[in-house]
């Protein structure tokens, strides 16, 4: 896996991923940025959310669960001083589907958290990770 970061201007940067996709990052105005794109740490948090959501949906589908939606909201706290690593991250899953088994949802989240989601497992080296979930019955 590779990624190339190019400084654009001010405090804006463009990342080109190994798969050829582009992501823009920018800083806050007080840091010289123009606030035109997400901060790098926001993207790190988004990556962890995307990684675990992918896992949960895949595990539920493979388990023949009728999952129709999945949302993960992440709430993170950071250290007060540099390096301002994440110290606590709360993952709030909302899983939507028809007749979803609570034990299947719990298992999918557990497998993602403990075995498959490299991003959240890596962040767990510095942060307390909390997983909460709810199921919404699809219409």
UniProtKB/TrEMBL annotation:
One Pfam family of this chain: OsmC
Coiled-coil region list: none
InterPro entries (UniProt xref): KH_dom-like_a/b, OsmC/Ohr_fam, OsmC/Ohrsf
Record protein name field: Putative redox protein
